[in-house]
Structures are given as C-alpha cells and as structure tokens.
Amino acid sequence: MNKDQIEGSIKDAAGKVQQKIGEIVGNPKQQMKGVQKQIKGKTQKAIGNVKEAAKDADKHS
C-alpha cells in the first residue's frame, strides 16, 4: 500500500463517521461534509491504486 491508498481509506472512514454523526444529530450540513470527505477519500485511494498498479507493472516489465 502507498500513502495515497492509506490516506484515502482514512478520509473515507472519517467521512462515514461524520455523515453518521450528522444523521444522528439531524444536521444535513454535517452529513454533506461527511459525504464530500468520503468522495475525496475514495478519489485519493483510487489514485493510489493507479500508482500502485503502475509500479507493479513496471516491476514486471
């Protein structure tokens, strides 16, 4: 795993928690911030996956 994969996973998880807290306390703004954080985390993780795949492909060529 690389830095982007790890940080992306952490942001995604934090966003899920933030969304759930917003849901529990009835704060739609907090829920949206959580969803946004999840999207950023998933995007960062996907970038990390691409980097990792490129690194692996480079090793095998």
UniProtKB/TrEMBL annotation:
Compositionally biased region (Basic and acidic residues): 52-61
InterPro entries the record matches: CsbD (IPR008462), YjbJ_sf (IPR036629)
Q: Where is this region: Disordered?
A: 28-61
Q: Which residues form the CsbD-like domain?
A: 4-56
Can you tell me which family this protein belongs to?
Answer: Belongs to the UPF0337 (CsbD) family.
Q: What is this protein called?
A: CsbD family protein
